[in-house]
Design goal:
The protein is α+β, with helices and mostly antiparallel strands. Among the domains are: 86-90 and 223-305, Efflux pump adaptor protein, beta barrel domain (Elongation Factor Tu (Ef-tu), domain 3), CATH 2.40.30; 97-212, OB fold (Dihydrolipoamide Acetyltransferase, E2P) (Beta Barrel). Helices cover 32% and strands 39% of the residues. The protein is built from 3 helices and 20 strands. The strands form 3 sheets. A 6-stranded mixed β-sheet has the order 14-15-16-20-1-19. A hairpin with a 2-residue loop joins strand 15 and strand 16. Helix 2 (130-158) runs antiparallel to helix 3 (164-190). The chain starts with a helix and ends in a 5-residue tail after the last strand.
């Protein structure tokens, strides 16, 4: 009986322990589920907050994009730049001659017109030569007469019939007649006016039938094979120039074509009135596109720099007289002071503040402020 009672007590004790464990597990399960729900609520709240932040950022980006200024940009790349003197002049030729007649006469033949290419010695004008031909015949007859007298006197002198004085006078008369004959032939040759140089007839100032004399200008001949420009340089630049220094010549009427040039001569004298000295620039024009008399610009190169950080002049803005450029970084325009170095017609060297690869605004920068949002327009190729 005692053993039976002990078995019942053991059974009840086991049941109690099982209930205790079961209850403990149930409590732990409830706590775990509650914690999961709490964590889910927190995660949901955090997710909703993140979504709201993303939405706000997108709205801000859309607002900034809507308010962004449209601009055009270029990327800075290395360039070769020149320092130069810019001067103006009128194109000339090294060889240019005005043609005048050497004798008086009437024009019977006008043999060339303006634009005609001639060589040295080619006939330009024929004057009436009838009088000169008669003078030649007359001088020839006189010479032959004096020559015969001289020969007879020489024979007589050898026979000691006449004196040495008579012999010398006869020789003098013969030589004078020879000179007069040569002069008459020379005057006859002057009736045909010839080209003194190779070139082209640039101007004609006479007409057929005109009476001319040595004071009348008939033609202007120009040799276009060697073109020059004379420029007057301030005296402060005298140490920066030397013979054979490179120059670039342009004419606004020839589609901005560059013509190569070089310094041919430098005057050693400074004009005290203007403070300048004359420099003669020789110009290469193998296709003969330039014409004497054209107005040209002459750039004399004084220095050359490679790999220069160059900014287009169109990109520069001025604030209180100081130059600035706008650089785009993260779609925002940053205002950068520009310290200038070399410059040419299109670009200015940036000494400090900019780097190769920077994106600078070239269109739309007028009126921009620092840190303004911008949107770059992609131009078609």
């Amino acid at each position: 009986m005692k053993r039976i009672i002990q078995q019942v007590l053991d059974h009840l004790n086991g049941v109690f322990k099982m209930n205790l464990i079961r209850n403990l597990v149930f409590v732990l399960l409830i706590l775990f589920v509650s914690a999961s729900f709490i964590r889910c609520d927190a995660d949901n709240a955090q997710g909703e907050e993140t979504i709201q932040q993303v939405s706000n950022a997108e709205e801000k980006a859309e607002k900034d994009a809507a308010n962004a200024v449209l601009v055009e940009t270029v990327t800075i790349s290395p360039r070769k730049m020149h320092s130069f003197l810019l001067l103006t002049s009128t194109l000339e030729t090294e060889n240019m001659v005005d043609v005048y007649p050497r004798i008086q006469g009437n024009i019977t033949g006008l043999l060339v017109e303006e634009g005609r290419i001639v060589k040295k010695g080619d006939p330009l004008v024929q004057l009436d030569d009838r009088e000169q031909k008669l003078e030649v015949e007359k001088a020839e007859i006189l010479f032959k007469q004096r020559e015969q007298i001289y020969l007879r006197n020489k024979e007589s002198y050898e026979k000691k019939v006449i004196s040495k004085v008579d012999m010398d006078n006869a020789e003098f008369d013969m030589n004078s007649a020879r000179v007069a004959w040569e002069q008459a032939k020379q005057n006859l040759s002057y009736t045909c006016v010839s080209a003194p140089i190779n070139g082209v007839v640039a101007e004609r100032h006479i007409r057929n039938g005109d009476k001319v004399d040595p004071s009348v200008k008939m033609f202007k001949l120009v040799d276009n094979s060697e073109k020059i420009a004379q420029v007057f340089v301030p005296e402060r630049e005298i140490i920066s120039l030397k013979k054979d220094q490179k120059a670039i010549v342009k004419s606004e009427f020839l589609d901005d074509v560059d013509f190569e040039g070089r310094i041919k001569r430098i005057s050693p004298v400074v004009d005290p009135n203007s403070g300048t000295f004359k420099v003669t620039v020789e110009i290469r024009d193998p296709k003969s596109r330039l014409r004497p008399g054209m107005f040209i610009s002459v750039k004399i190169i004084t220095a050359v720099k490679d790999n220069v950080i160059a900014v287009p002049k169109d990109a520069i803005v001025y604030d209180s007289g100081l130059p600035f450029v706008f650089v785009v970084k993260n779609n925002v325009a940053r205002k950068i002071p520009l310290k200038q170095g070399f410059s040419d017609e299109q670009f200015v060297e940036s000494v400090t503040g900019l780097e190769l690869g920077d994106t600078i605004i070239t269109v739309g920068q007028s009126g921009l402020k620092d840190n303004t949002p911008v949107r770059i327009i992609s131009l078609p190729d």
